[in-house]
Amino acid sequence: MRDGAFDISLPGLGRCLRVEESPDVIEALRQALAHWPPSIRQARGLAPAIRLRRRPGGYWQRSPRLPRGLELPTSTAAVCSLIADLGGDYLDREASLLGLHCASVEVDGRLVLFPEGHRAGKSTLAVAFSAAGYRLFGDDVLGLTREGEGVALGMAPRLRLPLPESFSPPLVEYAEAHAGPQDSRYRFVLPPGNGLAEHGERCAVGALVLLERDDRLTSPDIIRLQPGEGLLQLLMQNFAYHARPEALMAHLLPLMERVPCLLLRYAEPLTAARHLGATLEGGMQGNQGCGVGSREGFRPDRRGAPAINDPVPAQRRWVTCREVRTYPLGRELFLIQSGSGEIHRLNETGTMIWRLLGQESLGGRELGELLAEYYGQPAEPVIEDVCRWLAGLADVGLVTSGE
């Protein structure tokens, strides 16, 4: 392709990108978006919202997400940035989809999601699953329907370079044999055949897997988690920054009520992918009977709340605030404050206390004595824990004095 200005259209977005004097970027886009195939035409009329042009020493991109522009040193870096904008625009337009930051792979006809944050190892594990013969839906972004189906965007996975020395030789060989555009920082990997789902392809979600990388492990380990762990991760790893928490809960809670949440602890990605795939094949089941750590401590998960050191007086009575919506999930409870939209998670013990306070006003001593009898523990330490826990809830406005 000769130098010049070209407009690029994509299914679901239409004419969305103008690339000027950068044929190498266009060719790299063709490879990275082979499963979301672009249509390329000579530029005409007003430019689309996303623009990229060559400049001395690299490229310059402007878009609504980058109003001040962004300098990019290589064609691969340019493709990485453009794909981020294009994927975000597609999810913004598809109002029925919730965009998730996650890797996703098809196992036994159902999707396994890895909803981890930046540099958590999800892209590496996605490529490892591809090397193990499984089909990818993506390594970083996925659309989720209200019915619990994942929707592929058709973007090739990428690895950070250089590859770690801990990678097994077969994984390194796979990443090299199917290498796409790359520079000194990133390499796109192009799964052969139908190893990457086409743009818009759907598959029902079958499991949620959180990741823990530990180089000391000699073999992978899979641990069943409370479904609340998965819900909390999905609430943090989504693109719906302006959505009301109630809308997010309506979208995600039904999913976590029926799919298992697991923790994968591993050292080497390909070994982990093979082990997890073999474990899940034919064996994905819902959360019925899932109980890990059922008798935990007394503290709720209060994200963003200040640490509380001083317990409330043991005789002071408390009731739950009315401006709080509750969402049960397994043995736990999620709370959303109507005014601020803050989300809080209560473990099994916290859920018991919340429900007791919802029936009548009770003090820390009364609650502590009830729990001490239930758990078979000395009363005074439990009373102190409950009073500290109540202080934390009072501080964030979840309970109020009932006296």
UniProtKB/TrEMBL annotation:
Q: Which Gene3D superfamilies match?
A: Coenzyme PQQ synthesis protein D (PqqD), P-loop containing nucleotide triphosphate hydrolases
Write down the superkingdom of origin.
Bacteria
Pfam families membership: PqqD
Output the SUPFAM superfamilies linked to this UniProt entry: PEP carboxykinase-like (SSF53795)
InterPro entries recorded: P-loop_NTPase, PQQD, PqqD_sf
| Entry protein name | PqqD family peptide modification chaperone
